[in-house]
Please model this.
Amino acid sequence: DSGVTQTPKHLITATGQRVTLRCSPRSGDLSVYWYQQSLDQGLQFLIQYYNGEERAKGNILERFSAQQFPDLHSELNLSSLELGDSALYFCASSVGSWGADTQYFGPGTRLTVL
Amino acid sequence: AQSVAQPEDQVNVAEGNPLTVKCTYSVSGNPYLFWYVQYPNRGLQFLLKYITGDNLVKGSYGFEAEFNKSQTSFHLKKPSALVSDSALYFCAVSGIRSGNTPLVFGKGTRLSVIA
Model:
């Protein structure tokens, strides 16, 4: 158990809908990262927050947004969902925002868009 | 831009034999290199990382990796494979010493250890 929690574990929804994925980092970690894992794209970095502020942006679609709250938990919002958004979404956390910091991953949320 | 290549999609090894999972990287400057393992329907578990110093890094579950700067490689090794090592292995790189540096992952190598 990495100490990173994600809810829900599974999410099934329809095209055009909006969903929110939640992540709680390990105690003491200030950075939260979101990744998308799909069969064709592999593991893709979406976005990083550090202590409430956006730190880095990867291949995140404009339909997706995220935020980190004062208690350091984070939410990833996915809107106008398409079939291609079906994937595993992982949250990771680390102590700081340095490249050498180990990122610890949560169990993931499996999103299925029908 | 930084990148990671895992040249083998699948590696098969007999239980008790040594295993190697290959990884090469491309990055400007000095790299930070990581190995993660993913079991079915689970998140990624951290195995080990190289930051600086000794080129041989020891990690969890008896795994180790050797950093080779001249060959830009960071191969994962284990002297004696177990059936329970069967999983998906990811190499990742972070290449900047400060600031926001998300990990870039390879496509993964599926390891199958046969009894």
